[in-house]
Design goal:
The structure is a single chain. Helix 9 runs antiparallel to helix 10. Helices cover 32% and strands 15% of the residues. The protein is α/β, with parallel strands linked by helices and 364 residues long. Strands 1, 2, 3, 4, 5, 6, 7, 8, 9 and 10 form a 10-stranded mixed β-sheet that branches. It is globular. The protein has a single domain, classed as Spore Coat Polysaccharide Biosynthesis Protein SpsA, Chain A, CATH 3.90.550.
């Protein structure tokens, strides 16, 4: 079985890439002791911690990390009435961190994700691999059978059109997991002991027109290219659904990336997912989503965005309009979600006016 690396096995790169251009966003309800394992890789970077649940609880962060910590009181203070678009008692609260960041890139990770080891036993610097993915082009319009042609030791194969070899900017880097797979509750229940020990040394671009199940526990993206689409929806407290927050963001993001000619990569890097959530609790959260997704996914598959949707914000507002028109018949929840999508964009634009470098919240 795959084992997590120890802090002593992890060696930081000599010069951290994008040190001043990347924020690490972490949603949590507990002390962040897991950062000790990640210290060699994360310490040079700025953290944005979004505390879920009881705002009176004190979250302890190991010494030596630079961070901002936001709780529900901060979210309400900063967004005012628009705070209603940020989920409560759900890891979807992390998207508030995306909104208040002023950096070009975001890496987000869950607090039960540890440093994984590659087959040689070397600790995997997940952040470094995400940066490699984001800084190299994607190839969504024609599949390369050697996967990512921009990796060392790979290239475009015979028959790949030369007109497409320049690729397009990569907006999203989607990483994977060793140990506990990202399964839904029914699969958890029938495979309670299954663990992923298979390390696949590959990165590929998800083709245009193909949706994918995006997991938020090991994810990086170019905030300037796609940030406003990374809304994790209305989930958790007061909502009829949970555990579809990253799925929703992934479907919306992929449709917009396809429209704007941006790329999404998946594969490396791996993290070690240490803790399986309770499948019975998960089933209660996912129950409606399991049924709804059979209509939600065909909805996203048939979406065509108008040519005048030339920005992420315009695309997202159009998506919200179509969600209200076509998914409200599934459940009234989608009317509420569509309204929250519009509120999210309004809040994003308020906190991110052109040329702004203002940061709100508690800095340390």
């Amino acid at each position: 079985m795959a084992e997590p690396a120890t802090a002593t096995q992890a060696a930081a790169p000599a010069v951290p890439q994008l040190k001043d251009e990347l924020d690490i966003v972490i949603p949590t309800i507990r002390n962040l002791d897991f950062l000790e394992m990640w210290r060699p890789f994360f310490q040079p970077y700025h953290l944005i911690i979004v505390q879920d649940g009881d705002p009176s609880k004190t979250i302890k962060v190991p010494d030596g990390f630079g961070y901002e910590l936001y709780n529900r009181n901060d979210i309400n203070r900063i967004l005012g009435p628009k705070a209603s678009c940020i989920s409560f008692k759900d890891s979807a609260c992390r998207c508030f961190g995306y909104m208040v960041s002023k950096k070009k890139y975001i890496f987000t990770i869950d607090d039960d994700c540890f440093v994984a080891k590659d087959p040689s036993g070397k600790a995997i610097n997940a952040l470094e691999q995400h940066i490699k993915n984001l800084l190299s082009p994607s190839t969504p319009f024609f599949f390369n059978t050697l996967y990512d042609p921009f990796r060392d030791g790979a290239d475009f194969v015979r028959g790949y059109p030369f007109s497409l070899r320049e690729g397009v900017p990569t907006a999203v880097s989607h990483g994977l997991w060793l140990n506990i797979p990202d399964y839904d509750a029914p699969t958890q229940l029938v495979k309670p002991l299954e663990r992923n020990t298979r390390f696949v040394d590959a990165v590929l671009t998800i083709p245009k027109g193909t949706l994918f199940p995006m997991c938020g526990m090991n994810l990086a993206f170019d905030r300037e290219l796609i940030g406003p689409a990374m809304y994790f929806g209305l989930m958790g407290d007061g909502q009829p659904i949970g555990r579809y927050d990253d799925m929703w963001a992934g479907w919306c993001t992929k449709v917009i990336c396809d429209h704007l000619a941006l790329g999404v990569k998946t594969g490396l890097p791996y993290i070690y997912h240490s803790k399986a959530s309770n499948p019975f609790v998960n089933l209660r959260k996912e129950y409606k989503g399991i049924f709804w997704q059979e209509e939600i996914i065909p909805f996203f598959q048939q979406i065509v965005l108008p040519k005048d949707c030339t920005t992420v914000q315009k695309c997202y507002i159009e998506l919200a309009k179509q969600v209200k028109e076509k998914l409200s018949k599934v459940d009234p929840y989608f009317d509420k979600l569509a309204e929250a999508m519009v509120t999210w964009i309004e809040a994003w634009d308020e906190l991110n006016p052109t040329g702004s470098s203002v940061t709100n919240g508690k800095a340390k």
